[in-house]
Amino acid sequence: MADAGNVTALFRASTAHSPSYSALNRAGADSGRPLVDFCIPCNPYFPTPEMYEELGGRLRDILTYYPSGADTITAELSAVFGLNPQTVVMGNGSTELITWIDHLLVRDALAVPVPTFGRWTDQSMETGKRVDMFLLPEADGFVLDPAAFVDFVRARGSRTAVVCNPNNPDGGMLPRRSVLALLDALQDLDLVVVDESFLEFADAGPESSVADEAVLRPNVIVLRSLGKNFGLHGVRFGYLVANPGLAGRVRAALPKWNLNSFAEAVVFMLRQHRHAYELSLRQVRRDRQEMIWHLGRLPGLTSYPSQGNFVYVRLPDGVDGAVLRDRLLAEHGILVRECGNKIGSSSRFLRLVVRPPVDVQPLISGVEQALYATGDGGLLPVPYGSGNPAVDRLVMRA
After folding, report:
1. 113 within 8 A of 120, measured Cβ to Cβ
2. Can you tell me the distance from the alpha carbon of 37 to that of 309, in angstroms, rounded to the nearest whole number?
3. Considering the entire predicted model, what is its pTM?
4. Bond preceding residue 305 cis, omega within 30 of 0
5. What pLDDT is attached to residue 379?
6. CA distance 7 to 267
7. pLDDT digits over 290-327, tens only?
8. Which member of 53, 65, 72, 262 has the greatest number of CB atoms within 10 A?
9. How confident is the model at residue 8 (pLDDT cuts 50, 70, 90)?
């Protein structure tokens, strides 16, 4: 990539999140090679080509005219997903809803396991609130112990608790019964948020959601992302589910036209394309298992069980994820998410988005070349020993 230095400088300038895909493309515009994106967690199978063609044919009207009010778009989304529109609030991305949840409902302190989605830590800190961070233990594979988290909330005196299920970046997920037990244990808090932004990709799918319980409880919000599920981060839409009173407080704070015409167009296409959407989720689940299998064959690299559309991996000892990220980008045009700027993580970890097998093979090949190449080309110290002579011979031939 001709402008690899400009591209990697964007990562060093970002202290909390990865630079945007557009910014990366602009920085490497003269490379003549498109990025293969393992960083942004989109659904690669949805929308379908037919949907893109339909949206393209309507582009002039979508860009020219105002959208309907959020109540109209929310009513359609609720009908498709079988929800009561009085319990649903749509936002201009789940981040807008996180912002308003913080402003309206979070008082002095918020408790959240880390590592997790950065806005859950950053948003409340930016508004001067205390954020109580419960460290997920690497030794336990970053699995959340609900009882230990409840004890932590009690010890810290937090009045709001947030759990991402599945969690980002590790993909760990509590079963529905464990989440319900957590809600029961924390029913005296001001607020408990269950962020289910990646739940559609889980093996159990929507059946593992607690949205049906949220509408019955006075202090529970379930947050959902549409951009991730539909592969349309740029559209910026998400929604929350809560009891009508709690939902109404958030809805009243939002502008009437907080949703754009692209969001309206996609939501009103869902009835016709619901089957294709379900098929896309099944394919992502299959791809995830295959990708974990391929990653598991790389010596010294640890991949963690995931129910999201991404896989969290720990690099071999002595490997800096930022250096590996830059090498993959410069030499292979592959973009990965190095997690050194995530609270509770480090540069030894990558989050790799699940992609079709045709894209995974270049990723595996690129990682092999960067880590295990002989001479001065590999990032691992030489000689490398896995403890298995047969594996070592394969590594030396890679």
Report:
1. no
2. 13
3. 0.90
4. no
5. 82
6. 35
7. 999 999 999 999 999 999 999 999 999 999 999 999 99
8. 262
9. low
